[in-house]
TrEMBL record:
UniProt keyword annotations, A-Z: 4Fe-4S, Electron transport, Iron, Iron-sulfur, Metal-binding, Repeat, Transport
4Fe-4S ferredoxin-type domain ranges (all copies): 244-275
SUPFAM superfamilies registered for this protein in UniProt: alpha-helical ferredoxin (SSF46548), Nqo1 FMN-binding domain-like (SSF142019), Nqo1 middle domain-like (SSF142984), Single hybrid motif (SSF51230)
Protein name: 4Fe-4S dicluster domain-containing protein
One Pfam family cited in the UniProt record for this chain: Fer4_17
CC annotations in GO: membrane
MF annotations from Gene Ontology: 4 iron, 4 sulfur cluster binding; electron transfer activity; metal ion binding
PANTHER family: ION-TRANSLOCATING OXIDOREDUCTASE COMPLEX SUBUNIT C
Entry superkingdom: Bacteria
Amino acid sequence: MLLEKIHNSGIVGAGGAGFPTAKKLKAKAEYLIINAAECEPLLKTDHYVMKHFAEKCIQAITEVGKTVEAEQIVIVTKEHYKEEIASLTKAIAKFSAPIQLHTMGNFYPAGDEQIMVFEVTGRTVPPGGIPLQVGCVVSNITTMLNVYHALTEDQPLTEKLLTVTGAVNQPTMLSVPIGTPFATCLELAGGTPLKQFIFLNGGPMMGKIGNHLNFSDQVVTKTTSGIIILEEREYLYKLHERQMIQIINQAKSSCIQCTLCTDLCPRYQIGHPLRPHQVMRHLSMTDVPADIDDDPVWKQAVLCCECGICEVIACPMSLSPRQVNIYVKQRLAEKGIKYVYDGAELVPQEMREYQKTPPKNILLKMGLEKYADIDLTELVSYETEEVFIPLKMHIGAPCQPIVQKGDHVEKGQLIATIEGDTLGAPIHASISGKIVAVGDQLIQIRKDVA
């Protein structure tokens, strides 16, 4: 019953790639691990949820724990989140919930699900595998809030909590309909004093980057966790504006094989056979993509979680092992070459505890430290006059529209579905109004004029 409600409500993971939640929770697991670590610096959405919606989250987590038949239910957060921990602790006590709190130090990427599994259980997820292979299911705290709404109110996922911060006049925590233009979100944060800017859809390390020229094309989706506005000449812009041919040529000519990218790689540290410096060295000796084959060194790149530590923190030559790994992964996928774990013993690195990356180092390197201590205490809820709802907001196949131009829809009404048991999640109208357009990529809804 719970899984059916979650599916019918269109819930996917609140951040990252947006894996359909009902599919993930269909499994049985020893551990249910709730990610409340707010992995990316500057984002405050999970903080807000823990402080203000702890009771709802605890009720949902308890029911999800029953569904996956978890022997242990663990909420994982950072030890310096004092207010959040107090709020969660109070809610756990109120409901006598069978839930533990596990606190971690302040390091990045603490919210990576495989790192979190290791922190809680000491188990290493097999390379190329998923947490379920070591008895764990991992879900996000804000996803649990969405589950609560589905479970108790039959409320589909139509609104999104997100952080708007950086070079804005009034950093803001927003609740807006899915499909709200980024430009509207920026207006709600008081706009920006910058005439030209770059923006991040997500956090500083793994967010997708753009600039003022394509900002108006962006809309809030089910996985939008934050919008960060930055000065155009920030370090981050320089990091991302290089063309792939430049990245490859620089890697071929400048990599000094110091191994720091490997030493600080979070996946290498938990025992995965991923050594970015070897991929970089291989690059210097071959013609990419013509010479990419099923060489074991190339296939290491598949294990990269794209956290960015290698290029932002580790490399003394300002190279981009992450971008190289992404490029190699794409070339391998084009040739149908997959990584297959050979069953070798996975041995965590002894120095791991001493080589974790503090978020403050990331912010200092990127020149973002001035935005670090912004406290978002109030939530601004806003219902826009028009939304542009993408038909693909999750892993899996795009949804298929079941409405036509000219139809009137009510908020929460089903407007797009997936076929059969295809991986995906249905989509609902996020405002009431008229269907203005139905295309291959989005559905446009505009409020009726009184």
